[in-house]
Design a protein that fits this description.
Largest sheet: 2 strands, antiparallel
Oligomer: single chain
Helix content: 55-70%
Structural class: mainly alpha
Radius of gyration: 30 Å
Shape: elongated
Strand order of the largest sheet: 1-2
Number of strands: 2
Strand content: under 5%
Order of helices and strands: HHHEEHHHHHHHHHHHHHHHHHHHHH
Amino acid sequence: MAVAKEHTPDNELEKLIESLPGEEIPIDVNPDGDDKIPLDPETGLDPEQLESELNDLKDLVQGEIDKMLEKNPDAEWTDIVKEAKEDKKNRKNKGNVKLCEVCGENEVAEDEQYCEHCLDVMKHYPFSWWKYLIPILAVVLIFLALSYFAINFSVFKGTVSANKLIKAHKLDSALSAYDKLNAEIKVTDENFGGKYLRYQVDLYEELGIDHYDDALKFIEKYFEGSKIDRSYNKDVKAFRDKIKSYEKLYEKFNTAYNGAASYDDFVKEFDSLVSVADYDTAHILYYKYYAANVMGEDISVMRKNVEEIKKVSPESKTLYLPLLAEISLNEGKYDDMVKYADELAQVNKESPYVALYKSIAYRFKGDLVKAAKACNDGLAVTPANSLLNYQMGIISLLQGKQKEAFSFASTAYEQADTANAYVSAASLYSLCAQLLGETEVNESIIMETSQYGYPISDQVQKIIDGDLTIEDVFLKGKGDFAWN
């Protein structure tokens, strides 16, 4: 008695593939007299060209799946097969004229399937004929017979999902989605082409300077050796070179800064060391802004540099918008802070600077409810962010929530990654510890900061002694701790 074949999605896919119109064409990869492709004597193929062609194919398939899932985000692989089959049937006869099965443009006789041009291309270039397919959807049909694409459809779909997060301006979530995708691909040990990798490079470039270190590590890992020199990776190479020039520029900044007695001296020396031909102009202006900031120059000098960044590199919004918000804070222009934060959200609504500057602005405007909401929105994306935890600690203190403030201050202190963030968080943590009678915690903070040579703000003790109120420190003046 015959055993019925098990009904599975794979069997369904196989049936669909077998029912597709068209027939296989036997192609001799090394036809007599063909000297157009240098072939390996053992395999009969040019390994370098084959690798390049196959990677291009995978990129092309990724592009087609991008388009399909853009139209129908919930589609599965079998849905795509069915849609492709219908499209091909609809193309087969156009106006009662039979067209070539490959290009879909040239007329063919009733008993033929391929035009002379496509047959000639397939004969001489067995691994590049797909480039001539019009419409491009026919390429996907050819590879339906390869179970690779069906089995690994989730990877291609994952790329589409990550790109949708980018279009939704959720760049941090997109980066996390790609990290998971990279891990999945590593487990499969398969090559999925380079398109999904170049998408990630574009994402890092959009995120800007704060992610340069991670971007460089990513590029060096996935575009190692001669890969980055290939023509289709030229944009990746340009971005890598931009990051490296930014790192070199920091060395020039240090040289000029360490030998300067004034800001004008710094600018003169810095300009003599750098050239706009060798470095990004926006990066040069950023270091001038930074020097003006740390050297105590007037706020107008800082604003001039940042406005110049906006002028020469309008696409660098993740660089100049947070700087404009910081300048507006120092000028007491709180509505402008909110405006710049909203503009930044149009690029990356998950940027911690969006939540940070909105939170500070609302706090100064006296709306602690809005300040807390903005901060919590940011913490929902990056719960360990030191700056956001610091701000939430301040807001909690102003609301009379000392235990909550202590918890946020603790996280801000533990996660601080700059000297300024560390010193401010240590002062807030010390204040909260003393308000709650956590003597041992306070002693530990003081001992640790003294080992690094950092002082706790004098205002902490003044609040404890009753000479200042929390409102005096965080709602007046600069709205933050000060040091003598």
